Amino acid sequence: MSSNRIRRGKITVLSMIALLLLLTGCQTEPAERNPDQTESRTASAPLSDSSGENTVKPAGGELTYALSTSPDSLDPHRSGIAVAGRVFRTIYDSLVAMGADGQIKPWLAESWDISDDGLTYTFKLREDVKFHDGTPFNAEAVKYNFDRILDPETKARNAAAMLRSFESAEVVDDYTVRLHLKERSNAFLGYLSQAYLGIVSPTAAEEYGEDLVRHPVGTGPFKFVSWSENTSITVERNEDYKWAPGTVTNAGAPYVDRITFHIIPEESTRIGSVQSGQVLLAESVPPQNIPALEQDADIELYNVVTNGLPFTLFINQSREPWNELKARQALLYGIDVDSIVKSLYLGYYERSWTPLTPKMLGYNKALENSFSYDPDKAAALLDELGWNVGADGIREKDGKKLTLHYVEISPNREKRNDIAVMVQQQLKQIGIAVEVEITKDYRTVVFENGDYDLYGNSMVNTDPESLRSFYHSASTNVAGKQNLAGMKDPVIDQLLEAGTVEPDPEKRVQIYEQVSQEIMDRAAVIPIFVSPYTVAASKHVTGLNFDFLGYPIFNDVVLQGK
Amino acid sequence: MTVKDFVLGKTVWRESKRQTAARPRLRSLGTGDWLAAVSGVILAFAALCALFPGWIAPYSPTSMEADRVLLPPGAAHYFGTDYFGRDIFSVVVYGARDSLLIGVASVLAGGLAGCIIGAAAGIAGGVIDLILMRFIEIVMTIPGILLALAIAAVLGPNLFNMIFAVAVSMVPGFARVFRSQIISVKGRAFITAARSIGMPAPRIFFRHVLPNAWSPVLVMATIGLGTSILTAAGLSFLGLGVVKEIPDWGTLLSQGRGYLTVAWWISTFPGIAITLLVLSGNILGDWLRDRLDPKREQR
Lengths: 562, 299
Description:
heterodimer, A: alpha+beta, D-Maltodextrin-Binding Protein, domain 2, seven-stranded mixed sheet, B: mainly alpha, about 75% helix, elongated, transmembrane helix (chain B), cell membrane (chain B), MetI-like_sf (chain B), transport (chain B), MetI-like (chain B)
């Protein structure tokens, strides 16, 4: 009996040793791969640390970046979600680049010329650019990309929306391309700078077709290596790269050997991995973890403002009783945005007052503090409409209870589900019963069936023209008949159209200030917060930059002391 | 007398003493009963919380105050406050209602269904027994929490579906225990005697079989109460629970998860509440089993 137990103990110890060996074996594998990479690097580029000069940056290493969700696609024309954009930026280049200051800089296009009527853009392209598959980048490739986006077969989502005013592309010579627009668009260059209009290899697009989603080929600083679903995406350095945009300092190939994007949806795990050193960078730091990370000597915290549309609650005014202005105003006065932002984001997120974020062109500063939380006023407005408080504290009219269907997305990103919980309590005070529906399948519920009274959304974008897809009556992305706000308003439509074509920047500012004012006058939406993009980074990572949209740029990144 | 003899003598004496006089009586009124009493008090308190939460909770479980978020436990807020500014003690007290409701209702529903299947199989025997028990075995191959997860995911989150999901996962256990109990009682002499004097089958079943077969089921139900509360909390934790104004314990546990390093108290207290309730159920179940086990008295 006792000898038996000893033997079992021995076996346990032996198996543990075996397991340990197995584990360490797994860990050393990537390290073994590193040497031959260093070899190829020293052979091709003068980036090695052999010279003692300080000006030569130490190169190499693997950058690990923890993403909060998985990209839906690696075909830039077929995705519209921000997390995919962060990966696209490593694989694809655009014709032009937009720096953090909002200035347009050359990239794949060396220079460009805009006709006086604003309808023709002539781009002079770089002649030394090659796609990752070895095929040359030229005017034909650019034309192919724009034709591809407009081809309904491609099912382009975001990209097609940005090319709304685009008409056709014309190849002038090998390295000159002319883009014709249907109408003047001030947003056009900004759109061209976005990753969703990145240039894909025509050869690869033809070869893979729909499958380009999993076989991305571009001209970017990194080449695609592998994507394991819901786990990680790996890209490696493009040795031939020498066409970096004017927004970064390193014009050549990036310094790091490869970047692995790990997909870690669980907040505390993601932040824990950067604290423990398992990954070097982690995005979307929850506000409650910020104080501790700020104290951490090994961690650098980046807090980047993103631009576009803030996180906004859209009231579906095509449904009763929210078609009434007073009912919507009751929501605007009955929701205490200040305490939501203060409780959930602990002062790290800024409260939003308008349909645009503060750094956008045409931001209407006058709207700040233009209204305040006032449940009594909200209640009075509902009284006026004939909604009287019933026995259970919920208002009724003609035997119908006053309910509000609030749709939110699972998983709980940026504590948006918690906003719903707070709104539910606040609106209960003024006699509105809020039914919160938290669903993974928001596309069906909101965009196909239009079954919501309140739904929150935000958008990262370069130009206020993006308001069109949310407020213009011609935008019918919800149930094929309405925009997210359910708005059909000739005044707003006219202003949005004028804002698109107005050549004078001063006048554009006025137009968009007025659009914001009109939207808020109609109590169409409840702006909640401006989402910052937060990244916790190991101090070993230097040279990390962010573009205007808050997307990380890795060209200048150097790993130090690693 | 050698030392060895002395030691041996002492040991034997001790052993014999324990075996003869002291053991049975002391044990039967010892720690087991004491623990069972404490468990009973805890369960009673939980039931009180579920029935009259307003008497115990100092605050409304839904009132959110932006100026009291993430306060640590203290005199004003025994369990601290969460990130909404809710008093966690009050939320836990009110949350007892759903946790207990789901626990009791799913045990009743699952137990009843299981017992009916088990009784049918046990009485009928033959092909019906074979079919019913194979079906139960198929259900048993799927782990309880997985089965509940699948049902909750398919039917969608609401209270009834949640009870249904947890209840289904409890059916196999009850069915098997009750069936074997019925079979064992069925074979006893007094049943044969009843049959021989021409008693109708339903009467035999209700008068003689059932009263002699139910006690293990009672034990299972008490222990099952804890299990089902745990399963329900697990479902809520995974986001498949009921979306409602007052969160149940599993939901609260899940809400506090992201704050563990900052405000440990959000998840800890509902966690302790679940642990205490489940443990109490199990201890009481064990105690009941000891009491109801006829073999115990014979010893």
